[in-house]
Amino acid sequence: MAQFGKSSSKKGKPSYGYAIIGMALVLFLFGIVGWFFLNLRKTGDYFKENIQVHTYLNRDASKKRIDSLVKYIETLPYTNKVEYVTKEKAIEKWNTENDTTWKMFLKNNPLPESIDFYVKANYVEEDSLNLLSNQLQSAYPGIISEFQFPTETVAKVSNYVKTGGIIFLFAAIILTILVVFSIDNTIRLAMYSNRFLIKTMQMVGATRGFIAKPINQRAVINGLIASFIAIIAVWASVLLIESFLPDFKLLHDNSGLTYLFLIIILLGILISLASTYRSVVKYLKMKLDDLY
Q: How many whole angstroms separate alpha carbon 91 and alpha carbon 100?
């Protein structure tokens, strides 16, 4: 019996090797799709957070109330890069971005003062910005002449992010199902070569728990190895893509990648363990003649 078990384990090792490689490849594909999903989200957030909001001020607004409004906007948890633009700064920006022929016709600076700022991505929605406008005008009546943001741009970016998110969500669900089935089939093929060893242990009186324990431990180890191989491959691919396409570095999200890698590890372990245990139970219930 000892010789039989030794022979079976030797036959099982190559299958485990193929199973690990197969799991790693499937998890790598899952990781790459997950990385593209992260980039889609970051791209949407990047565009949203680069949409500037202008709060134009009345010409008779006092400096004290303007400073108070600036501090109020700065204390809001969803605002970034708040800047008080005086008439002088406004004309400098205009001259930088446009021609200066207006000086031939106008002597006085016609541009109003404003408070310009950016909003965090989650709040860059038309409804949210309109609520912000009402909030500012209610808190500081008589100071704001106009609250302006590119409505069409906000709508287009929001639709782009939502549509892309839905598409990638369906893709992720389909891919996850494929990952589960692919790894399950790979594990079942690996366990097939150990079916006689499992049945022999049962025939000499070993309990289900005793038989399953070392095999399940091996499944966890295989899942970890496959996951780490997939993570290294994904990380190397990300670095390679970023080296050839530097714009992707702007979207680099270490926290998002960390969560993605944890999901890969979790998937690798759970699917490997569940498939292995299911195969063990299957061969324990089968009759010896049916194993041939």
A: 10
